[in-house]
Each structure stands twice: as C-alpha cells, then as structure tokens.
Amino acid sequence: MKLKKKPPTQGGSSSHEAMSNDWLDTGNCPIAKSYRAVHNVLPLVAKYTQPPPGMKFKCPPAIVAARAALARTALVKNLRPQPLPAKMMVIALMGMAANVPLGVWREHTMKFSLSWFVAVHAAVPFIAMLRKSVLMPKTAMAITIAASI
C-alpha cells in the first residue's frame, strides 16, 4: 500500500511548522504530541510550560530526516505488518543491543560528565523513532523503556 505524499505548501512552510497554539493543538512533531499527552495527565505542569502565543515553532530538521530515513529501512517496512508482540520483542532486543556498546563506553567515562550523559541517553531517540516508525501504540512504550534500561 502506497501512501500519497502531500503537495508542498506555498510560502515555504511545512507540516512540521506552525504558530504556538496551532502547533500544540494539531502538530505532528513528537514534541507537540508529548506536550498534549502531558496536558491530559498533568494540566498544571502543561499550563506553566506552554510557550507564549504567537511564538513560531519548527520540528528540528534532524528529527524529521532521521524519522524519514528510519521509516524507509527494510527492517521497519517488514516489521509494520507484524503483530504487536513481535514488534515489541524486536524493539526490546534492539534497545538492549544498542545499550550494550553504550554501556561499555559509559564504563570508561567519568560519572556525570557530558560523555557519560550522552552514553546513558544516546539510545533513547533511536528507540523512540523506531517505535513510532513501526506504528506501535503508546501503551507499549513502557515495555521498550524497560528493555532499554
């Protein structure tokens, strides 16, 4: 099944860019989706972290490019139609596999240094993008986080 690509919009804007209120309410960027999830669970926290009206946000191009590149890989294309337990198992194994070399690197860094912080958190964006690319439900996120730890 092929998805139709949306035609580019006039004026150079993209679907990854919007004014603050529109972006928070309808944006497809993971940051906007996370904000909406926090708003539903912790409205007081979301109220104080909401950006000022009229501020323009743009999903970082590196995130857009990385998600697009990951979605085009054979692994993701073959994993999408699989049942949820198979997706969860593969992502859990990928999380563990990514964290083994990072753990070895972390052992050779000074605790709480910048390189230690990077070694501890480097796999998180990759696993999050992989989970999103294979169309896993948000409830499965806890399993993938536990596997990464």
Can you give a write-up of this model?
- The protein is built from nine helices and two strands; from the N terminus they run βαααβαααααα.
- The relative contact order is 0.11.
- It has helices at residues 20-26, 30-41, 43-49, 61-71, 74-79, 84-107, 114-121, 123-133, 141-148, and strands spanning 17-19, 56-58.
- Strands 1-2 form a two-stranded antiparallel ribbon.
- With 149 residues, it is mostly helical.
- The termini are far apart.
- Keywords: Membrane, Transmembrane, Transmembrane helix.
Number of helices: 9
Mean pLDDT: 77
As laid out across the biggest beta sheet, the strand order is 1-2
- Given helix and strand content, the structural type is mainly alpha
Q: Got a strand count?
A: 2
* C-alpha end-to-end distance: 35 Å
Major pleated sheet: 2 strands, antiparallel
Number of domains: 2
Low-pLDDT parts are 1-13
Helix and strand sequence: EHHHEHHHHHH
| Portion in strands | under 5%
Report helical residue fraction: 55-70%
Rounded radius of gyration (Å): 18 Å
Specify the overall morphology: globular
Describe the SSE topology.
Layout: E1 17-19, H1 20-26, H2 30-41, H3 43-49, E2 56-58, H4 61-71, H5 74-79, H6 84-107, H7 114-121, H8 123-133, H9 141-148
Antiparallel strand pairs: 1-2
Helix pairs in contact: 1-2, 2-3, 4-8, 6-7, 6-8, 6-9, 8-9
